[in-house]
Amino acid sequence: MKIRTLILGVILIFVVLVIVGNNVTIKKAYAQEKPSIDDIVGIWWVNTKMIYDKFILPTNGTRAIYHYLDQKEHLPSLNLTFTIEDSWVDKDRNKYFKVHAIQDLRGMPGFHFFEIWKINEAGTVFELNSYEDALRREGDPDKYPAGINPHPTDSSYFIYYLQ
To answer: How far is CA 136 from CA 112, 113, 127, 131, in A?
Structure first.
């Protein structure tokens, strides 16, 4: 009886270690995977319910924002130059980017924006939360949003869809 209990105990400990080890390995794999901005460059993203209806990320590290959906060949309403500060993939295979963007005001740097971008696994939905430097509250330890929040207390949440 004691040997049987000892064997069951050893098996139980082994099973727990395997489960915990696999879970840690999976989490590490996602944490170490870095999504590429190339996956979303050159794609038109649209949202007809917003003032800025459409944007594209050209290959030059900018985000060109257009007011109207039919505005393809005209100049964008707004340009933001951005730098990817960090990127990661979550357990659901969503891609995240921590982005510092600067508004271009006729060739002169304007407002700084600190954003978190989320692109779903299928690559069809682009969400972002943004803090504008001028609107940042005193005492905020980090300029970047903590994550994607569809219901922020301000108007910093935006959602776009693959065109």
So the answer is: 11, 10, 20, 7
